[in-house]
Amino acid sequence: MIQFRERRRYPRTLIDLPLEYQIMDVPYVHGGLVVNVSETGLLIYSTRDMPVGLRLHIAVLFPRGYELTHFDVTAEILRKDFSSRENSEGYVYGLRFIQMLRDDHSKLKELLAEALETDEEEEDNGKSQTHCAISRW
Prior knowledge:
single chain, 21% helix, globular
């Protein structure tokens, strides 16, 4: 197995979670999927075509024990790539966090720690579920 050394200050964690987003100052909510996450941004998939520079209000949904919770963040689209996924076409967006409340940042850090712990357990058992779920990218 090839080992890669992460050079980013805030490494990305591959994850497959639903999200809801709203373009700033527009009342409609849209859905998407988180592809990966770090403490400074997200890579998301959406079928909606949006320009680089657009700002979004995002709620990332994730399980906490037996409950569903979320963290909210305001982010800006830094990059955009066309993508096809299963039977639909859409876009993958690289987003940078602009604003996040302290409580939401704590939830994000908890999610990242939990994902890392789960990934290490799966690697110890000869599985890498997180990576398999995202391998279609």
